[in-house]
Design goal:
The protein is mainly beta and 164 residues long. It contains one helix and eight strands, in the order αββββββββ.
Amino acid sequence: MRKIIASVLVLAFSGGAALAEMQIALGAPWDGKRIPKGQHCSLQGGKGATPPMRITGLPAGTAMVVVEYNDKSYAPLSSKGGHGIIGFPVKGSSADLPSVPGMTERFQGGIRLIAKARSTGQYASDGYLPPCSGGRGNDYRADVKAIGQNGAVLEKVTVKLGRY
């Protein structure tokens, strides 16, 4: 009986800890429902950039936030940063990630390209590839990872960017 009570207490307290996880809010004009006008790739007349993000609840020891951009509707670019991976240096328990331009590997303020988009041919990009599905309703998401000084992933949250 004591083991059962102890197990219930452990579960109750671990559930409470989950409430302190990272929270992410997209900055305007991004709403998580539809990709904003003009934020798609240049092949379709856009001049896309990453969405700005406000992150709260960063785990203690977070040195960098790494964002992997994916198109969940297109298998070759649906995971592990298919549309690119960008690292943002951070300090403290919250961070404001600025919007950075697509199609380039050059950023300011210590922001760095971890991996360029895996797209090829006319869709190839030197950095982040903005949504480029032609408006077919593809599901774009970002895996946001808090990274410690030693490179370990401290926490991961997936945020819906919108459909295009």
